[in-house]
Design a protein that fits this description.
single chain, alpha+beta, 4 domains, 5-stranded antiparallel sheet
Length: 844
């Protein structure tokens, strides 16, 4: 190798190293941008190592002089190899887990994006959430490295994928931005996002300027090596270049500082996470509040709903469902509520409480009983653990948890015997409602006239304190009843209340529709009007019902007071305030412990629980206007009432269906699992090899079309084109100028010149060619193909068949014709560089 060639390689290596350094910095910036999405050291490993793997594949492909197609296949293979150890380390625990992790890695290329959008950041290492980030950095670094190693024009395009990698952390991040930073009286909103954006711009600018200077230095070296004199560059031009570069950086920084505050106030930040809703079955379920009385039947009152192991500490309640929307018929989860996944690993924190919960015989359904404030997804145990974990979601506030895992009976959710562990933050200082100011009514008074009239009759201020007094009056003037008949079904809860304070049964209807609640308030209004202004509290007792009706009434009263409210179904724990009528539960919660309460939003934005269970010591007595109740009222005789079956709920419940067939044997289940894994693996392999298969098929169809043309002359010309494409794919240079014979001579192979002369003689002969002439030409092509395969290794022959050069040459024939042999270089740095390039070509 000459000294001049060695210097050219050295400067080319400097350009390559400069470009690879830029790509690596882009990977680092992308990793920093994605850190808030994951908040896990594993994300740093995935980002840096994944980026280095992608860059290494690009460097190896260039060293082996592979085309873009083979390089892409190698990058896909590298991804499959490193995906599980890097992004899904939990799958290394066993062979089945590894196979499942490999399946998630392949499918995650397409499906992983939606998974991370249905999770609440930080994601940690939950399942395969790191797969999309690995795809971004590995393939992004691979493409960027290919571009920076591909010459001047391509290297400039590398700025696009390098910058795009940093967009991942912003697009898939949380809606909120980093906390504002104040320095010397200037406030910069979203400082982390601003720093990353400016850094991406500055690094790209430095790369482009540095690459241009290195190319200029290379051109000057070539000129000096050929002893070409050049005029010295004025000093002021160099100064101008440096000043201009610095000015661009300063302008970028100042513009960022000026635009950031304004941009932060333009509109609410919107990310991809805000546009994706998980597939859930919440809207298909009947309202859990509508089935509240079923807890107090003889079959369920004493049966276990959940068993709690562990010290609940200051936790006051365990909730089943939070219902925030009322449609006049029932309280349910609002249609626009979002349910997302919750990471399985939580960031470290102090004072957290861990509980183990077991589902009892009295409970089944999609709602997951758990305290509010889960910091991570529950750890499920048992045979259905994986299915329950995959189906677990929480609402945006973390107050309602569900699992949509399918049960053996074909339903969805939990079933008796399911176990899980939860980790929650210890409750802090409870907010109060006393200082809350109400406002204009959020309730349609025309739809609730009795409610509005009773609330106005109390003459209380529209404040939080006034609302609490209103609820105390509602509870004191109500009477607890869970049934319409005093029969065997209601014997258990009646006996329990009688054992405490001598309870006397009063019938009440179920339901919490507008009509039912208006009936309740109508009785209150009529009783207060008849009792008069001097009535004692005992004279005002008139409303009969339980937590179903009183929770709905209290929630609607809060809305009438101008306050946000919602209804919660669950149970009270020992730390909660004791409420007569519904006892709290400790280690075991049974049906008789189930209650409903109201939560009202405080001025600090927190929800405050308000108990609504009515009293049961003073039985209501209907009075006429002006009548005075006796000091010791007697219990009135209750009229006989017939129970009516409620109408069938419109839901997708399968309770009435015939039981499903017995499950298949374990051997059949294992066989189906293996078949599914093999099928997914074959599908993934087919998807990876599909571009190569398509390429081979297209080449085969192209050759078949040429060989089977009806006109012998067309078949002859097709034989020559097939041979020319064969040479291009095998890396044999053929000039695109001149006649066929001249092109064949440039190849230096006898078969090429023989076929060229045969085709020219047949095409330009006085008589048209025959089928024998065409067959002879194609026999030359077939023999030459066999000869080329014999001169190559098996791997080299496969590379030739998978190359796209023959297609690209026909798409851009001028470019293909001007292609120079490997080792020469084209410089386009102005007249100074072109002079050196011409001299270099002449010497070659």
């Amino acid at each position: 190798m000459s000294a001049r060639a060695a210097r050219g390689q050295r400067f080319s290596g400097a350009l390559d190293l400069w470009g690879l350094g830029y790509v690596f910095l882009g990977v680092v910036l992308a990793t920093l941008a994605a850190w808030p999405v994951y908040d896990s050291p594993r994300a740093l490993v995935v980002g840096i190592v994944g980026g280095l793997v992608g860059m290494s594949v690009a460097v190896l492909a260039r060293m082996l002089r592979w085309g873009a197609l083979l390089a892409g296949v190698l990058s896909a293979v590298a991804y499959v190899v490193v995906a599980v150890p890097l992004a899904i380390p939990s799958a290394l625990s066993s062979v089945p887990a590894f196979v499942g992790g490999l399946r998630d890695a392949v499918l995650g290329v397409v499906l992983g994006w939606k998974q991370i959008l249905t999770l609440k950041p930080p994601l940690g290492e939950y399942q395969a959430v790191l797969i999309p980030f690995l795809v971004i950095v590995l393939f992004g670094a691979f493409l960027s490295a290919l571009l920076v190693l591909g010459g001047r024009r391509r290297s400039t395009l590398s700025v696009i994928p390098v910058s795009a990698m940093s967009v991942f952390g912003i697009a898939f991040g949380d809606t909120g931005t980093s906390s504002p930073f104040t320095f010397l009286g200037f406030t910069l909103p979203a400082p982390r996002e601003w720093v990353i954006g400016v850094a991406v711009f500055v690094v790209a600018l430095v790369f482009l300027v540095g690459a241009a200077r290195l190319r200029r230095a290379q051109a000057l070296r070539i000129v000096a090596a050929h002893n070409i004199t050049r005029r010295a560059t004025p000093v002021w031009l160099g100064i101008r270049r440096h000043v201009l570069s610095g000015a661009i950086v300063v302008v970028a920084l100042v513009a960022g500082l000026a635009i950031a505050p304004a941009a932060a106030g333009w509109s609410d930040r919107s990310v991809l996470r805000d546009e994706v809703e998980p597939m859930i079955v919440v809207q298909q379920q009947p309202s859990p509040l509508s089935g509240y009385r079923s807890w107090f039947t003889a079959e369920r009152a004493d049966e276990t709903v959940v068993r709690i192991d562990g010290d609940p500490g200051d936790l006051e309640r365990i909730r089943i469902a939070t219902l925030d929307s009322y449609d006049g018929q029932d309280f349910h989860v609002a249609a626009d509520d979002r349910f997302t996944r919750l990471p399985r690993a939580a960031a470290p924190g102090a004072g957290r409480i861990g509980l183990d919960i077991t589902v009892g015989d009295a409970y089944r359904g999609i709602w997951v009983p758990a305290p509010s404030g889960l910091v991570q997804a529950p750890t499920f145990a048992g045979a259905r653990a994986d299915a329950l974990a995959d189906g677990f979601h929480v609402d945006a506030g973390g107050d309602t948890a569900i699992t949509i895992a399918e049960t053996a009976a074909g339903a969805a959710g939990l079933e008796p015997g399911d176990r899980y562990s939860v980790l929650v933050d210890a409750p802090g200082r409870s907010a109060t409602l006393t200082e809350v100011q109400g406002g204009e009514s959020l309730l349609d008074a025309d739809a609730h006239p009795a409610l509005a009239e009773w609330a106005d009759m109390q003459e209380l201020p529209r404040t939080g304190a006034g609302y609490l007094e209103l609820i105390e009056r509602l509870r004191a003037r109500g009477y607890l009843s869970h049934a319409i008949l005093d029969d065997e079904a209601a014997a258990d809860w009646i006996a329990g209340l009688k054992a405490t304070e001598g309870y006397a049964f009063a019938p009440s209807y179920a339901g919490h529709s507008t009509a039912r609640i208006e009936e309740l308030f109508t009785s209150l209004v009529d009783q207060q009007r008849r009792a008069g202004a001097d009535a004692t509290p005992a004279m005002l007792v008139a409303a009969v019902g339980d937590d179903e009706q009183f929770a709905t009434a209290a929630a609607l009263l809060a809305q009438h007071w101008g306050l946000e409210s919602r209804v919660v179904l669950g149970a009270r724990l020992p730390a909660a305030e004791k409420v007569p009528g519904i006892p709290s539960c400790d280690t075991e919660c049974v049906g008789a412990n189930m209650t409903a309460w109201v939560e009202v939003r405080a001025s600090e934005g927190e929800w405050v629980a308000v108990d609504v269970t009515p009293q049961f010591s003073q039985l209501p007595s209907l009075i006429t206007e002006g009548e005075q109740l006796p000091e010791h009222p007697t219990v009135p005789e209750q009229p006989h009432s017939e129970s009516l079956d409620p109408p069938q709920a419109q839901s997708d419940s399968r309770d009435g269906e015939a039981p499903s067939e017995p499950a298949a044997s374990d051997a059949w289940a294992v066989a189906m699992l293996v078949a599914r894994i093999v099928g997914v693996g074959l599908l993934a392999l087919t998807l990876l090899l599909l571009p190569l298969i398509v390429l081979l098929v297209v080449k085969g169809l192209r050759g078949r079309t040429r060989r089977t043309a009806a006109d012998p002359e067309v078949r002859l010309v097709g034989a020559w084109e097939e041979l020319a494409d064969l040479y291009v794919d095998n890396g044999i240079a053929m000039t695109g100028r001149g006649t066929r014979v001249q092109g064949a001579r440039s190849v230096g192979r006898p078969a090429a010149e023989r076929l060229a002369r045969s085709v020219d003689d047949a095409v330009f002969a006085a008589h048209p060619p025959t089928d024998a002439d065409a067959d002879k030409a194609w026999s030359i092509v077939d023999a030459e193909r066999v000869a080329l395969r014999g001169e190559q290794t098996r791997w080299g022959g496969l590379r030739a068949r998978l190359r796209l050069r023959s297609f690209m040459a026909r798409i851009a024939p001028g470019r293909a014709a001007s292609r120079t042999p490997v080792g020469s270089r084209h410089l386009a740095l102005g007249t100074l560089a072109m002079a050196g390039a011409r001299r270099q070509e002449e010497d070659a």
